[in-house]
Design a protein that fits this description.
By secondary structure, the protein is an alpha/beta fold. It is 54% helix and 13% strand. The N and C termini lie far apart (66 Å).
């Protein structure tokens, strides 16, 4: 045989899908990378902990799929998803997060992601979600898919839905963090915006939900966080 052994090995090796991990917890990234790299058809090509690092990593690693957490350092995953969708419309994204799927699944799909799965899911389910999205499908659990379809086909009626349904993405993030007891400054730091902007969002929330003052906003946000 006169062929180059390294060329033969390269031709026979299966192509592995390149995956970028975006999560602000190093241990979570390490666990996901370990799980993914054990698969013959998948490999982790890079990691990032915030929006800026993620954008730079996409430029340098050219992934096939980006796995995004919703809670990032100084930003929110929804904003990253929108950024990536605008810059790289053909790049697949999958959300793997601790956040309530019933609250965020529809929003991340609208923003440009192709699936949502919680970190509590079994490893085999996360791998299934990755492969489904890489295959061009949308991945949601049955409950979330049913809820979205029901909402899209239901006739609008008075008093329906939850307080969060009328809020825009950024307003919802402020509302949720308010219900967790975060101060205005803490919300600003977590979302990467200034304090005045947080106050503007709170004013819009009060107007949309017909709340008289900040005390009513806080009480409703706490109740909403506890009951969903």
């Amino acid at each position: 045989m006169n062929g180059n052994p390294s060329q033969t090995s390269s031709r026979s090796a299966p192509k592995r899908a390149r995956i970028l991990l975006v999560d602000d917890h190093p241990l979570v990234r390490e666990r996901l990378a370990e799980v993914i790299n054990r698969e013959g058809d998948l490999s982790v090509c890079g990691e990032a902990e915030d929006r800026h690092q993620a954008i730079e990593a996409i430029k340098t690693t050219t992934p096939d799929l980006v796995i995004v957490d919703l809670t990032l350092k100084s930003s929110h995953g929804l904003e990253l998803i929108k950024d990536v969708r605008a810059r790289w419309p053909k790049l697949w994204m999958l959300v793997v997060s601790m956040h309530d799927e019933s609250l965020y699944a529809e929003r991340v799909i609208r923003a440009g992601a192709r699936g949502y799965i919680t970190k509590q899911e079994a490893t085999r389910n996360i791998l299934q979600a990755i492969r489904r999205v890489l295959g061009g499908d949308i991945y949601l659990n049955e409950r979330s898919a049913t809820k979205i379809i029901t909402r899209l086909t239901a006739k609008p009626g008075p008093g329906g839905g939850t307080p969060a349904d009328s809020l825009a993405d950024r307003e919802l993030q402020v509302f949720e963090l308010t219900g967790r007891g975060c101060s205005t400054r803490q919300i600003a730091e977590q979302l990467g915006i200034d304090v005045k902007t947080v106050e503007t969002y709170r004013s819009r929330i009060k107007e949309k939900l017909r709340l008289r003052d900040s005390s009513e906003l806080l009480q409703l946000a706490i109740r909403w966080n506890h009951t969903r």
